[in-house]
Structure formats: C-alpha cells, structure tokens
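protein under study:
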Amino acid sequence: MLEPWTISSVRSALAAKKLSARELAAEFFTRIDAQNPTLNAYLTLSPERAYAQADKIDALIASNKSLPPLAGVPIGVKDVLSTRGIRTTCSSKILENHFPVYDATAVERLESAGAVLLGKTNCDEFAMGSSNENSAFGAVKNPIAPDRVPGGSSGGSAAVVAAGLAVASLGTDTGGSIRQPGALCGIPAMMGSYGRVSRYGLIAFASSLDRIGPFANNVHDVAAILQTIAGRDPRDSTSTTAPVPDYTSEIAKPVKGLRIGIPKDYFAEGMHSGVRAKVEAGIALLKSLGCELVDIRMPHTDYAIATYYIIATAEASSNLARYDGVRYGLRVDDPTLIGMYRKTRGAGFGPEVKRRIVLGTYVLSAGYYDAYYLKGQKVRALIAQDFRDAFTKVDAIVTPTSPIPAFKLGEKTNDPLQMYLADIYTVTGSLAGVPGISVPCGKTPQKNLPVGLQIFGPAFGEARVLQLAHAFEQAGGANL
C-alpha cells in the first residue's frame, strides 16, 4: 500500500509544484471510483465544489501567495453535517432528498483553511449505532477486514481515511461514535470537550452529548484539524469562549513525569483477550516513556450504559419529533394528519431509530420521567464527578477504546443489547463532557485486527490528550 497522504506531505507536494491541488483531488476521486463500490463509505460526492476549491488553491500557488494551513487537503464529512447545496441525508430515507441551504460551522472553517471537500460519508442512521449497519443506504465495510464492521456511527468517516480515500475526515461522537470506529479501523480519532467545537449545522441526535471531531492518519493531523474547527461560534450558544491552544505545538512537549490514571473498572470481565493484552502493552509503553502509573477508581462506571441510553434516547425523541412530513424531508400523504405522521415516520425511519424514539418517549412520559430520566441525569452528574475526582490525582486517564475488535457484519444486528455494550468504555467520557482520543495500539494476534488505546483528559485539556497520544504514536504504539 502507498504511504498515506498527510497534511504536511500535501503541503510539501503543492509548494514544490510536484502536482496541483486539482490533480490531487482528481487522484482521490479516481481512488473513490475504484474502492467505494465495495466499501460503501461515501454516500454523496461533491466534485464540482472540490475542484472549485482546488482551483483557488492552485491560483494562490501560481501567484506565490502564502497558503492556508489545510491548503488542498482532501477531506470527507459525515453525512449528519449540513453542507450547502450538497445532499445531507443522515443516512436516513426521511432526509434522502435534503439539500441544506447553509454549511455547518466546522465545514465552513475547514474550507476557509483551504481543505477540499470530496463528499459526504456514510453513517448509522441519525448517528444511532455502533457498527454502521443501521444506514438506510447499506452498511460500510471495514477496509482493514472487509467482512467486518468499521464501527459506528461514524464508520464511513473512519473508513475513508483508513482506505486512503481522504487525508482526514469529520465525524460526530455522542457515545463513542468517533473513537470506536477509529479504534476498529486502526487510525487516530478524537472527540474534543463538549463545547470546544461548534455544533451549528450538525443535525441533532442528542444535543447535550453530540460532538464533532476529526479522523486522520496521524496525531499531528488530528491536532491540526481540531485546531481549525475549534473555538467560539456565536451561532452555537453551547460553544465555549475558552481560548484554543496551539495544539500542533503542544503535542511535541515531553510526557515524562505525567501521572496516568488506570481505572480498574475499565478492565472487567468480557474484554477480548487480544484487546486486553495490547492495551496492557500500551500502558507499559507509556510507563517506559517516563509516565507515572496511578491506580484509580471510577465507581459509577457500571451505570454508564444504562444512563447513556436513557438520556440519549430521551433527547433523540425530542429532536426527531421535527420530522413530521410537514416542513421538509419525506412526506407520505394520508387523508388525516395523524395518518400522515404515522406513514411518513413509518416509511422514513429505520428500526434502530424507531427503537430509540420509543425508548426515549417512554422515559419522558408522565409517571416515568422521575423514575428514569431524572434519575439518569443524577447518575450522569456522579459519573462526571468521578472524572473530576480522578483529575485531582492524575493528568490523564488511559483505558481500552472498545472491549472487542471489529466484529463480523451481521454478527450483532439481532441483539441490540450486545451492540450497546460495545460502547461501555466510551460513553463515560461522553456523559462527563471531557475530551478523549483513540490511538492505534497494535493488532490482535489471532485475526490481526486493530486495537485502540483511549486517552481521556480533563475538560478543555485537549492539548494534554494530544501530547500523550503523539508521544505514544512516536514511540511505536501502533506496532505493539
């Protein structure tokens, strides 16, 4: 396989005039034409927009003007992020012909930095799933092992980077939907703190949990993409005013002396033996770099999955009520209003989305709100407190990303509970609002499948997370 393109290699090639931005975009579209029919990772391509952006970059080069930081870098964007004039479906039949009239802030910022948008990536419908098998337009295949899932819900965004069909991509993470596919496809993938990246233009699943973040071939590129999309946006009242550090400079700092928390609660029964062995080897590698290992307890971890699936489904029930066939999206006519609602939603939503709407409506209903939703919010506060307490003792927390490597397509589709349990190590950081990254940590000995090491930092501590991930990568963590 050819050495993957990176932000720096794209920049060097363009500056040296080894190729033009248009030629590079054309190369990626050729690759997509060859591989996407098998992988099903892109749903919609945007060649007209890509070539227009590439031509702007080539004009800057021709006039010897300085290039923006992501000049000519080909990217893919998860199909839950609005893109002006480009079909945005959320991988759902209900939005099959939806063409937004504006760009998400994150997309806007990437293009302002010179990135070239190749197209929209496949995902679980409305970002609900852990395998990318819930898409109304077919499952994505893992480019490392095509008989297996790429992870979800941002499986397409992970697959396009792992397969060399984009230099970087954007996904979204509600309970692990960036980090888990990053782990299963063997690439770095990061979720910043809640509020670090504007959610304007992100079609909502669970508004208090959804976050936008990058996939790339190395930690430096993850840092560069996050740097570009982070920061206050007046169009999103939940985006933070906290200053954005220079992540690409911060990652080079030494990690010797950093205290790394190892929570015993994340190394319970049920973890795949190959995953456990590789993650333990990864922790040993961090120790060899001079990090101090500290045993910590996260006592409310066992309640995280139940808490997440109460809060996330409740918010999904509220957010998806807008798809009623009246204003936009699919409409199935009926003589009565209720009949039109039923037929539209029945035809437009897939089984997993329907399941979560029913669950969410139930926990919000009269007589059950206090018993489920209110209690879930209280437990969420306890999980967040676990993280705050831990970060008084340690600088970062290291865990497995997923308890299992990529599983076979179809293996868990008839057992939603087993699918939900695949998120056991990721939902905690989502509920707590802290940043987390998954970095490649070797491969399982039996099937040679990628393993991910997860690093959490305190709220708005992305620089520390990236610093540790970069040191781990540079020390050969991916080849353990």
